[in-house]
Amino acid sequence: MAELYSADEINALFKDLPEWQQDAYSKFANMIADEGNTYPCVPGRMGFLSGHLRYGFASDPRTHASAEDMAKLLNQYGPVSRDTGHYASLVVICETPDDLRNNTTVEQYQSLFWEMLNQVSSLDTATWPEHISTDPHETTWEFCFGGEPYFCFCATPAHELRASRHFPYLMFAFQPRWVFESINDNTPLGRKMKTLIRKRLAAYDAVPAHPSLMWYGQQDNLEWKQYFLPDNEQSPSKCPFISMKQAISKLTK
Length: 253
What we know:
With about 250 residues, the protein is an alpha+beta fold. The chain has nine helices and five strands, in the order H-H-H-E-H-E-H-H-E-E-E-H-H-H.
């Protein structure tokens, strides 16, 4: 069974973890807490340094077992997320064998990301929250699991120009929506945080900020467009999540 860990728990049993998990966690720690303090996601860095983040590992993302692992982790995380700290997030790192890492494009990872998210959603037994739209093309939509809305983030080995979305393993991060209650575009702290993150992104990435990148609370903000950002400025015209759900619905009729 996929296990949910705090940083202290990972450090305590580090040598007992599979080698790839040791490597993945070490690389994550070095990236987010780099000595130069350059990592753009300030809330993520603060969450790591404060011990607010939780971690889990999933199987090869090309297998259904990976979606099952992620669903189990979300089931464990949802009930405890509010007790983990103000800068809470769940980081899930997938086993990424060399054949996947070396032969997969950003576009292929994008398809894999949405396929994974769809499979995870199909394993959710909870009712969709009433205050969250089920249509991704409405501003109130957010990915939900276990009755909890999350902002999703994906990083891949194939990203090059957009370094903020690069990681040697396929990585998902699920940030509970309540985290943004005090750092959205309607609060002074939120606007200050947005300015700081944009400044860091400009220095960190080799390309300008993606046009879909907005801040929670901004007018016309569509969250799904920010979940997976490619190296270029392209963005799907329709949310792949709803397209996949509709395709599966047709198959089951």
